[in-house]
Amino acid sequence: MKLSYIIIPHETKLGSTEKLLRKTLDEFYIEFGGCTHYPVTGICKGHTLGLPCEKIEVAVQPDEHDVFIMMAKDVADEAGVKEIMVQDYEGDIHFIPGKGAN
């Protein structure tokens, strides 16, 4: 197993992501047998003073990598963000585009 994670902003142009965060935690806990989450602050274009986010970490088996990436894509789409940051099974960082990319 190796650590993978996703960082989800607490607010997007669509509003609060509280329900999405709860849903994601529930889905990750069921799919991967548990997860760890905690608040972090992100800095990006348009949010140079800091953007409150949640980091959700899961232990991923090699054969679960694609499932994790698909779930992260669903989160990015539902959040309506341009992109969402994840660390994959191998430790590589990706910015997965969401529906807000258009």
Any overview of this molecule?
With 102 residues, this protein is of the alpha+beta class. It has a single domain (2-101), classed as Alpha-Beta Plaits (2-Layer Sandwich). The protein is 29% helix and 44% strand. It has helices at 18-32, 65-79, and strands at 2-9, 11-12, 15-16, 36-44, 47-60, 83-87, 93-97. Strand 6 (83-87) and strand 7 (93-97) form a beta hairpin. The mean pLDDT is 93.
Helices and strands in order:
Layout: E1 2-9, E2 11-12, E3 15-16, H1 18-32, E4 36-44, E5 47-60, H2 65-79, E6 83-87, E7 93-97
Strand content: 35-45%
- Order of strands, main sheet, comes to 4-5-1-6-7
Give the CATH topology: Alpha-Beta Plaits
Main β-sheet: number of strands, strand sense, barrel status? 5 strands, antiparallel
Number of strands: 7
Provide the succession of SSEs. EEEHEEHEE
When the domains are counted, the total is 1
Helix run count: 2
Radius of gyration: 13 Å
Outline the low-pLDDT stretches: none
As a percent range, the share of helical residues equals 25-40%
Defining traits:
102 residues; alpha+beta; Alpha-Beta Plaits; five-stranded antiparallel β-sheet; two-stranded antiparallel sheet; 29% helix
Produce a short descriptive summary:
The chain is α+β, with helices and mostly antiparallel strands and 102 residues long.
